[in-house]
Amino acid sequence: MNKVIIFLLSILILLPVASAITIDNPQQTFVFDNITVNFSSNQTFDSLELGEDYISLSGSIFQIIPSSDSLNVTITIWNTTGDYYKKWNESSSNFSVTTRHIIGDFPATTIIQIKKNGANWNNYTSNATGYISFTYTDGYSDIQFEAQVADTIHSSCTPVIRAILGMLTTLLVVILLLYIAKSIYDTNNIIQSLIYMALAIIIGLSMAAFVISGVVSSTCP
Questions:
Q1: At a CB cut-off of 8 Å and minimum separation 6, what does 220 contact?
Q2: Where does residue 18 rank: exposed (0-12), middle (13-18), buried (19+ CB within 10 A)?
């Protein structure tokens, strides 16, 4: 009996205890490799793991590999559910340092929009396990990054889709006007038929110019 009790107690001791981890001291720092990580405010995570070259927050891997020197990182928001929005700052005394980023816990095969200092910087598609990776080479000072799931329109490259839809719509309108023009021409009303044909040409050329200018002047966010 005593052996059974001891065995059961051993199992209970070895079982992991689920408890949230709260960063209640924003000045507290975590160091891995040559990266120093701190938090701009109190934050709570399901788990926090510090690896050799990464930090894991609620199971979300955040890995930064600088080409040289050290890097300071301040995490402001790190959502691992819901909108998966993440916001952090990076700074280095070496302007020319480049950094390889690996960030996890996004929805699988989804367009993730990266912003730099509030402006759209680039889009990346998460892999089958929800990870994205990118290398930043644009020079360092104090940079604010944001990562978020791009909305459906943005993630599908808005200018191209609008161009295709615009061209299809224009084609249908032109065909309809030409059909009306031919029907009127068959009734020997040549002047009215020419008016519809001219209208079709004007609409077609105007819409084509509008679509082309929209694609040329716009880029995917």
A1: 123, 154, 157, 158, 159, 160
A2: exposed
CB atoms within 10 A of CB 191: 7
DSSP per-residue letters across 35-59: EEEEESS-EEES-EEE-SS-EEETT
| Longest Cα separation, the chain | 109
Give the sign of the dihedral formed by CA 200, CA 201, CA 202, CA 208.
positive
Count of Cβ atoms closer than 10 Å to residue 181 Cβ: 20
Residue 102 has pLDDT above 70, yes or no: yes
Decide: pTM greater than 0.85. no
pLDDT, tens digit, 9 for 90 and up, residues 60-101: 888 998 998 889 999 999 888 888 899 999 999 999 999 999
Question: CA 17 to CA 11: how far, in whole Å?
Answer: 12
